[in-house]
Amino acid sequence: MFSLPNTFVGPLTLPSRKLGTSNQLRDTNAVTEQLHTQLYDLRSKLYSVERERDLSQLRVEMMQMHGSAPNPAPRHARHRHKPKQPSYTYYPDGGQSVIWHFGHPISGTS
Fold first, then answer.
1. Measured on CA atoms in the order 49, 53, 59, 60, is the torsion positive or negative?
2. Measured between alpha carbons, how far is residue 70 from residues 45, 74, 79, 90, 106 in Å?
3. Residue 20 belongs to what H/E stretch?
4. Cα torsion through 29, 31, 36, 42, rounded to 10
5. Three-class SS of residue 86?
6. Distance of CA 76 to CAs 22, 25, 39, Å?
7. What would the pLDDT profile of 33-73 be if each residue is shown by its tens digit?
8. C-alpha distances in angstroms, 32 versus 6, 20, 38, 82?
9. Is the model's pTM score more than 0.85?
């Protein structure tokens, strides 16, 4: 009877080894891609947190330089002048002009 030499059996297992290595490589690449994505997300979060920290620190420094934030003036005190009043001039050819008149300061006794 004819028998095959032992050296012929080895190459038959080579494709299955390549398939296993190929699967491992594919899985390793998938994990690497997931890790890159996580790293990118974490860097984005880090940059956002650092930006917020820097803005907060800037606000604190500004408040320290100028003392505490002043209380805003009441609404009636902020508008001590009458609002601007427009005065329109219409021309016969269809044009117009606008002149804005500014009010005088409101006196506190009226």
1. positive
2. 34, 12, 18, 46, 24
3. helix 6-66
4. 180
5. strand
6. 77, 73, 54
7. 999 999 999 999 999 999 999 999 999 988 888 876 556 66
8. 40, 18, 10, 67
9. no
